[in-house]
């Protein structure tokens, strides 16, 4: 029994992105083809991915 399922394709390079069966909303997954990070934004009825938000520096503010 595998703990991965193919859910979607990378929004940058169209490589299939493997999603763990226990994935939850907000999980960040990296494309194995180009490294683009994706956020899990929907679980049911199918897993849907979007580009992960970029982390911005606050420079101590």
Tell me the strand order in the biggest sheet.
3-4-5
- H/E series, N to C? EEEEE
Mean pLDDT over the full residue set:
83
Instruction: Give the biggest sheet.
Output: 3 strands, antiparallel
Q: Which stretches are low in confidence, meaning pLDDT under 50 for 5 or more residues running?
A: none
The portion of residues forming beta strands comes to 35-45%
Helix content: under 10%
Question: What is the overall shape?
Answer: globular
Give the terminus-to-terminus CA distance: 48 Å
What structural category characterises the helix and strand content?
mainly beta
Count all strands and give the number: 5
Number of helices: 0
* Radius of gyration, in angstroms, nearest whole number: 13 Å
Pfam families: Zn_ribbon_LysW (PF21344)
InterPro entries: LysW (IPR005906)
Protein name: Lysine biosynthesis protein LysW
Organism: Micromonospora inaquosa
């Amino acid at each position: 029994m595998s703990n991965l399922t193919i859910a979607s394709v990378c929004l940058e390079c169209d490589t299939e992105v493997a999603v763990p069966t226990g994935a939850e909303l907000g999980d960040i997954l990296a494309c194995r083809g180009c490294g683009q990070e994706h956020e899990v934004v929907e679980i049911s009825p199918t897993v849907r991915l979007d580009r992960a938000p970029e982390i911005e520096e606050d420079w101590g503010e």
